[in-house]
Amino acid sequence: MFDSLSDRLGGVFERLRGRGALGEADVRTAMREVRIALLEADVALPVARDFVEKVTEQAVGQNVLRSVTPGQQVVKIVHDALVDMLGSDTAELEIAVTPPAVIMLVGLQGSGKTTTTAKLAKLLKKDGKKVMMASLDVNRPAAQEQLAVLGTQTEVATLPIVAGQTPVEIAKRAMSAAKLQGFDVLMLDTAGRLHVDQALMDEMKAVSDIANPAETLLVVDSLTGQDAVNVASNFSEQVPLTGVILTRMDGDARGGAALSMRAVTGKPIKFAGMGEKLDQIEPFHPKRVAGRILGMGDVVSLVERAAESIQAEDAERMAGRLAKGQFDMNDLRSQLAQMRRMGGLGALAGMIPGMKKAQAAMASGAVDEKILLRMDAMIGSMTVKERAKPELLNAKRKIRVAKGSGTTVQDVNKLLKMHQEMQSAMKRLKKMGGLKGMLGMLG
Ligand code: GDP
What we know:
The protein is about 60% helix and about 10% strand. The protein contains 19 helices and 8 strands. It has helices spanning about 5-15, 25-40, 45-60, 70-85, 115-125, 145-155, 165-180, 200-210, 225-240, 255-265, 285-295, 295-325, 330-340, 355-365, 370-380, 385-390, 395-405, 410-430, 435-440; strands spanning about 100-105, 130-135, 155-160, 185-190, 215-220, 245, 270-275, 280-285. It is found in: Cell inner membrane; Cytoplasm.
């Protein structure tokens, strides 16, 4: 899958790789091609636009790491943004609730709902779960029988068919049967339609109200590209989805649906259907898929290693400054950047009292990335002199910094106070024999 996008991006970076330095114009040229590649892969236009903007913002002006080429670095940035777009980590099924955990599958007719219901039931059964499947599809002739056949094939129980019942009635019956017979998981295969209509949505909402599903998974056919994305956006507006399953990924060379889906629904892609057979389903791995799209795993790990060694150098340089009791706004800024990168404390920040507080605040959700970015903007609005000597910041200068960073003087004061606390902690540290002495004490 994804061959064409991968080829296309490969060509873009090939051209970049030959160059010595990478300026804004180079990044913009490369990104124009990335954008075309994404659109050709059938990624939704707004999604492609956002993606390119984000990557451009990150790439332009970024210092190129020593020991990698600018092109390699751009590959890494594009890769990380792809992973981000696809949803970072593999998303698990959330079924740790009082049994029976209900998993409801929704989607259009022919998207692969019934097949996927059986595939998931088989997976869960292998996991030691006691699973029951029920088809609520009273529209398509023989849909319920189809699921019964799949049940026999996979040796998974199915709810006995009672003719003439409505989906809501079947759902009620399935719930009580699953409860009475001690099933861990109840899978509900809902009725599809040829296209999204209100009757379908109302029916799904009614079933959802009764069954209170732990998972409501939208099944979409990845081969339908943009249509899949439209369907997903329609569904996600009406039913509280918890995830998406992309079927027919075995035939999807373009991958646009996968790339847009997460952005459009805001929900993780949990599984990928890879064929008609009942064991052809895989958890969706964003990193693996991003790697496959780029086809440049070696470059990505090269840049990762380079970044690690440079972080180590930075940490050493910082340790030198700290040992002398120095801690200016530039140091604070690089620590904030590290916090942002790592989603937690920077290499040395753990030893700085003020930073520990900041981390606790971050962990509790009181400080999020936006606040870190705001602090960064404030430091960015200071002059070189002010950064080295923050005590220069008088009332007038504070107003200028606040204006320049879109913040308030109050915000600037808070930042200065934080810096001051950290700086005096540094001085105390120095009296205790510096960081080295403290490290020695810690063993
Ligand atoms: P439903 O109407 O949504 O319940 O769709 P079905 O489960 O009946 O699937 C429709 C067709 O798609 C069947 O022929 C399936 O075998 C096929 N199908 C489902 N998932 C996949 C998949 O991941 N890959 C491929 N190649 N075919 C699939």
